[in-house]
TrEMBL record:
<dbReference type="GO" id="GO:0015629">
    <property type="term" value="C:actin cytoskeleton"/>
</dbReference>
<dbReference type="Pfam" id="PF00241">
    <property type="entry name" value="Cofilin_ADF"/>
</dbReference>
<dbReference type="GO" id="GO:0003779">
    <property type="term" value="F:actin binding"/>
</dbReference>
<dbReference type="InterPro" id="IPR002108">
    <property type="entry name" value="ADF-H"/>
</dbReference>
<protein>
    <recommendedName>
        <fullName>ADF-H domain-containing protein</fullName>
    </recommendedName>
</protein>
<dbReference type="InterPro" id="IPR029006">
    <property type="entry name" value="ADF-H/Gelsolin-like_dom_sf"/>
</dbReference>
<dbReference type="GO" id="GO:0030042">
    <property type="term" value="P:actin filament depolymerization"/>
</dbReference>
<dbReference type="InterPro" id="IPR017904">
    <property type="entry name" value="ADF/Cofilin"/>
</dbReference>
<feature type="domain" description="ADF-H">
    <location>
        <begin position="30"/>
        <end position="113"/>
    </location>
</feature>
<comment type="similarity">
    <text>Belongs to the actin-binding proteins ADF family.</text>
</comment>
<keyword id="KW-0009">Actin-binding</keyword>
Length: 113
């Protein structure tokens, strides 16, 4: 039997779907975004190269950097296990799910951890 796609309710937390998510460099906070963040996000969005991307703020360089890339075969449990318990992170997760009409869908989720 194939991989079971979770339902949005399986996450046990509110889910916010981004219809057209794209990172903006030098947002209002003044924090820079490393070019690799934008490149990896576009690869996830267009080619589904990754299941998730975890971003970390580098205090010394004052910019957001890619910390971890999740392979497409990894699941939500692997993603959740990759998040540190006591530190902040930003993440993008490519969430596959089944609708109430039994249609397989995929949405990109932005997570502030």
């Amino acid at each position: 039997m194939g991989r079971r796609f979770p339902r949005a309710s399986d996450l046990g937390a509110p889910v916010f779907f981004l219809s057209d998510c794209s990172p903006k460099a030098n947002a209002a906070s003044g924090m820079a975004v490393d070019d690799d963040c934008k490149l990896k996000f576009l690869e996830l969005k267009a080619k589904r190269t990754y299941r998730f991307i975890i971003f970390k703020i580098d205090e010394k360089q004052k910019q957001v950097m890619v910390e971890k890339l999740g392979e497409p075969t990894l699941g939500y449990e692997d993603f959740a296990a990759s998040l540190p318990a006591d530190e902040c992170r930003y993440a993008i997760y490519d969430f596959d799910f089944v609708t109430e009409e039994n249609c397989q869908k995929s949405k990109i989720i932005f997570i502030a951890w």
